[in-house]
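Reading a protein record of the kind used here takes only a little practice. These numbers are not coordinates but entries in a learned vocabulary of local backbone shapes. Here is one such record, which you should read through line by line.
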Amino acid sequence: MEIASGIIGFSLRYGVDARLIMAMVMVESDFNPHEVSSAGAMGLGQLMPSNVQEMGVTDVYDTMQNLSATVRLVRGHLNDYKGRGNTFENLVLALAAYNAGPGAVKKYGGVPPYRETQNYVRKVLKLYNEFRGGQ
């Protein structure tokens, strides 16, 4: 309940579709607040240490702090790519930036040719579409 409440609350606060955040958290950590990746990403939204510091997170494994930072990062990426083509394209770029970093998206002029990032974007979009009632 705490995770669902956090996702919905922060999504409403920052104007991001809660179904998108739900899909991202599912792909990132499968809702495990103590998840740590081999690359050092931590918590529900798999925040990297640089993001933790940038977002002012003091306890990356705290559900609310992690979700707040995750949604704020997503909001920032959505804002960064707003107006660069259609809404779907903006979403794809924002997801790629969340996974690989905005520098990689800029370097490659789109989704980087990293298998992990391409799979990430695909998985999140598939879940997001399902959560929205699509096929």
In short: Helices lie at 2-14, 18-29, 49-54, 63-81, 87-100, 102-108, 115-131. The mean pLDDT is 95. The two ends are 27 Å apart (CA to CA).
